[in-house]
Inverse folding.
């Protein structure tokens, strides 16, 4: 093991095993389950060769696709052998599947998480039975198709039509315009053969809104397109090389009446349309998906900071007075950047896992959300939308900073940092554009303010927690958050009121004029959720040293937010004065040094295997240069001593010139 | 043309032709030269097929490399036919070469900008003649090799040795350790056959520091490695797919005495070492390179914002009260994000071009920097280092925001945004890590403060400008910057003094403890440079409407900086009070609407061809969906109706299972 990283581990006050168990319990529900799953992970990775052993990041797109395709099937088989459903939320954590796939995703995620789930949620009992029987007796790879080339966030704007034909009792699907061509759905291009398709239901020229239809895209014999269906991959993207995203064009595609999922709305054979259920439950079910996404996004960030912290301990750069190059983790600018990332990923870890557990709990006590109160749904929607947005905003921001903190080598694909940034980038858009989501949160907050009710989740732990010494230590900080929230929301409400009543704008216009500020209040609301969840979990840690290390890290998180993210509003609204702000900065600089002592063990506690990280720089043993050089040697450009570029281009060019020219 | 983008163009108050000429004059020195070069560009692009017509972003790395290789040679030939040197700074602007290569770079950039330049700068007269004669009579592709796998920023830490052998009058090059293997130099892996190699000179076991050596890497007959030389590509990276970056390992590579570039230091045949010149001029020559880099980095940002603004005018999303989906440029959150980018790229445009012209001027009046005063050099180093860092920091930040502002389609490679982000990301590290550069700037600022002298460049235009009504309009803003600068630098100096004299830290430790703040002061210093350059250029614009549009945009830039980047320090140091800060925000929201009227024409004024942008979303005619769909259809995954993934994986898997299984 590299001597520098060993020294970091030896100097830490953190008890690693205890910290791993603590985080494992929060992530997987109990220590027993955690150990069970880690055992499963180790068996899986001994059976299925991880992509980190496949020179994966040096490969071309076709090769990556085939590798992920094969390994996805192997993982499914392995899970089946172990009697575990691939839908199990436990398994979908990056920590387990990621031991084989690194930050890559299973190719069939949409089959289980969207295609099957939609049928189960939106289908009648008869339909669920029917489609499961088809799935059980055929090799169905399903996906979920909604967005169109001209339409994203705004579902009502979708143009693809499903026109009901009474005579034949069929729907006829069409993409009547260029903008109505379906675009982006995962695996719809070349992999999937079935799909849920969202389309506007038309009966007798009347529009009954967007409904869900099961449509076969390719036949099960030879994977060729069904009549009237054109699908294809949409080409390269900012990432996701191993996955196809599809475009799909329907031209008079006929599907039977049965294929419209009819639990909430149905079409009778004679063409009568009937609302049969509430869409509320549909929305409620999205909550769990979104909370899971928060957990996933933060896992990405924790992968990225594991790499950056370990490399910062190993890398030496520039000379001190004695002519020795210090570890770069010694530098304040480095600490300032990477510890912000580290403290953020811990805080979001507590928050996202709290949210997941809380929503599962709500689901259980409301009979699969059937009995959920609309007010509770509003609250949960507000926090889950906001937390999803802030998770991916943070992940993108800090994963990028982590790459910069690793210098040149961070830019090599061997660093493992690139696909994390790419996924975080996409995550700011997929499953709801972050700005749109934050504005949904803000709309709820504004309504609450107007009604004079609190938008915050009521934590069952709160009254107990407030008695703790830990809370007393943080109380002044918490007061800053809450005071700022109250002042900001009242400022925005006041401004909107004045825009309508004094400037004469419509409510719609006034809303738009306040959206920059509304995004801010939504972010602050999410922060408040995060600090309460964090404090509660840290308070539950029984190892004194570990609790202290977490407390330092958490205080650092709070100080970053106060001195950086919210400082302008805090000072503008006189929540704290200039001297206090200066003291907070001094305190922050002091905490950097304390956190530095435990940083390596704090990332070790995430318990990732090297095959999770897929990173030369983040290797547990710190032998980064060997691995970097190995990766280099495995470049596909090195397959021959003389690359075809010379043979095919430079040499003939030179001869063609017939002159001993110079460039 | 798309009706929405046409409407934007018709509604603008800006005179497009005049604005193009205005920017062209600043960029190329005169309107005549600008038109000459645009003419050259149009001829070039009619002769050499641009990469935007080659399905480039859908290709694999090998194919990209070969295309850029071929087109680089074609461009060299074209320039030669037109009697223009490829070294000409005019030509290297992204606007010209980019008409063929988009944001990609010529493969031989390091040959002209580093290999040849180093020989010319560091070689004796005899050496320059010798190497030019070799270059003239052979097909030499040169590069510049410095960084090692374990050593980047810190040049003195390089481990590769060049040991002088008196008997044979040769140097023997070795990479004695893993960490000493050369890593990252562009084209050194598979393309180049010659290189400047930076290595530690050893004579009789004594270390004479890092010197420059000309080393042949591959022979000129068949491109195979020279004895003792191992080179290879380092593998995939976060971008630059079309370029090889190399690793190079030397094992007892023998080169003649003549190959050490000896203008500043030489080795006599008997082994005597002699300093023969000053390194000052070497550093001075880097100034122009760095200023050119600022201009290049900002060009990238202007490409990216051109795409984002045009797409924002075309894209419609979400419904207003009338059920119509507005152009997304209508939304305040969209305006707030993209106009920050737009105002930034204009401000940096003025600043970077001022710096280039200023340094060329200094070069001319100091006889190629031979007579430059050390004090002037310090000043120029401080501003060029800082501006390079801030240019790429801004470019990365805003190019990423622009991608997010384009929603899902921004993530398609068809958007053209991805390679811009990738280049910006790399640019934050290459040619000097941004944090390291900002700290170099800060070190200079601190020294100036201690000596009581001003670090700011003296602008020849300043006294005249101060009389203008434009200056009077901005004076209050300028005062905020200058007051803040004075207060911040004195605060930092005070803190350092107290850390040394009261806390008892060493100067070295105290410096490290203040580096987070020192980065801030360096950024502010750069901002002050930018606002003066911007105001001067805007004041020189004689078209009243255009000047007004630029003034609004510039005020917006200043307001972003005051309310966002510097707001915490501004309020903490009581430079403005809470009410003023609130007024600034209101003013900013108002200006968003004004800038919105001219945004499309302001990006049209950059005068990029569609082939510069390589973007479906940024197309001049606004027909984005056609182009996006074209790109999708051209995905390599669509070459067959049934992808090999099905044939090679799913089908055999299914058969192997011999069961009609379900996933």
């Amino acid at each position: 093991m590299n001597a520098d990283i060993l020294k970091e581990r030896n100097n830490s006050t953190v008890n690693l095993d205890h910290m791993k168990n603590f985080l494992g319990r929060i992530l997987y529900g109990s220590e027993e389950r955690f150990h069970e799953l880690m055992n499963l992970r180790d068996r899986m990775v001994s059976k299925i060769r991880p992509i980190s052993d496949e020179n994966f990041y040096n490969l071309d797109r076709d090769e990556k696709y085939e590798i992920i395709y094969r390994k996805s099937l192997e993982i499914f088989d392995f899970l089946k052998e172990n009697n575990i459903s691939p839908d199990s939320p436990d398994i979908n954590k990056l920590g387990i599947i990621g031991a084989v796939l690194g930050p890559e995703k299973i190719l069939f995620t949409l089959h289980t998480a969207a295609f099957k789930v939609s049928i189960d949620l939106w289908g009648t009992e008869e339909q669920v039975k029917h489609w499961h029987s088809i799935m059980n007796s055929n090799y169905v790879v399903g996906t979920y198709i909604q967005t169109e080339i001209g339409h994203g966030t705004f579902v009502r704007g979708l143009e693809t039509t499903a026109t009901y034909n009474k005579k034949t009792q069929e729907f006829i699907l069409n993409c009547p315009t260029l903008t109505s061509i379906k675009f982006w759905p995962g695996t719809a291009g070349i992999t999937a053969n079935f799909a849920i398709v969202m389309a506007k239901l038309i009966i007798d020229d009347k529009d009954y809104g967007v409904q869900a239809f099961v449509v076969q895209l390719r036949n099960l014999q030879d994977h060729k397109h069904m009549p009237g269906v054109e699908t294809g991959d949409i080409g390269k993207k900012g990432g996701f090389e191993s996955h196809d995203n599809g475009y799909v064009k329907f031209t008079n595609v006929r599907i039977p009446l049965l294929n419209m999922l009819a639990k909430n709305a149905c079409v009778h054979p004679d063409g009568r349309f009937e609302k049969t259920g509430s869409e509320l439950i549909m929305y409620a079910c999205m909550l769990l998906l979104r909370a899971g996404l928060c957990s996933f996004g933060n896992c990405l960030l924790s992968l990225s900071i594991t790499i950056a912290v370990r490399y910062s301990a190993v890398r030496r750069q520039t000379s001190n007075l004695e002519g020795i190059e210090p570890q770069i983790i010694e530098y304040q600018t480095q600490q300032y950047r990477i510890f912000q990332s580290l403290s953020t990923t811990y805080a979001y870890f507590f928050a996202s896992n709290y949210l997941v557990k809380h929503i599962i709990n709500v689901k259980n006590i409301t009979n699969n959300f059937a009995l959920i109160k609309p007010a509770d749904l509003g609250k949960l929607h507000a926090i889950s939308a906001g937390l999803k947005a802030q998770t991916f905003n943070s992940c993108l921001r800090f994963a990028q900073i982590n790459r910069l903190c690793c210098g040149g080598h961070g830019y090599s694909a061997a660093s493992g940092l690139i696909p994390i940034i790419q996924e975080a980038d996409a995550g700011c858009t997929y499953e709801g554009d972050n700005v749109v989501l934050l504005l949904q949160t803000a709309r709820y907050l504004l309504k609450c303010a107007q009604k004079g009710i609190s938008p915050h989740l009521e934590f069952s732990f709160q009254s107990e927690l407030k008695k703790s010494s830990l809370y007393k230590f943080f109380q002044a900080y918490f007061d800053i958050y809450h005071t700022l929230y109250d002042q900001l929301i009242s400022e925005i409400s006041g401004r909107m009121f004045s825009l309508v009543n004094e400037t004469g704008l419509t409510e719609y216009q006034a809303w738009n004029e306040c959206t920059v500020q509304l995004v801010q209040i939504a972010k602050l609301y999410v922060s408040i959720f995060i600090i309460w969840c964090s404090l509660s979990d840290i308070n539950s840690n029984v190892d004194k040293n570990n609790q202290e290390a977490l407390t330092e890290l958490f205080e650092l998180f709070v100080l970053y937010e106060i001195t950086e993210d919210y400082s302008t509003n805090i000072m503008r609204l006189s929540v704290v004065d200039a001297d206090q702000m200066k003291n907070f900065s001094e305190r922050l600089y002091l905490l950097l040094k304390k956190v530095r002592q435990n940083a390596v063990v704090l990332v070790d506690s995430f318990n990732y295997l090297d095959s999770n990280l897929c990173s030369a720089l983040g290797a547990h043993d710190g032998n980064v240069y060997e691995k970097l050089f190995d990766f280099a040697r495995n470049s596909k450009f090195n397959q021959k001593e003389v690359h075809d570029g010379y043979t095919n281009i430079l040499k003939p060019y030179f001869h063609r010139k017939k002159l001993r020219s110079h460039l």
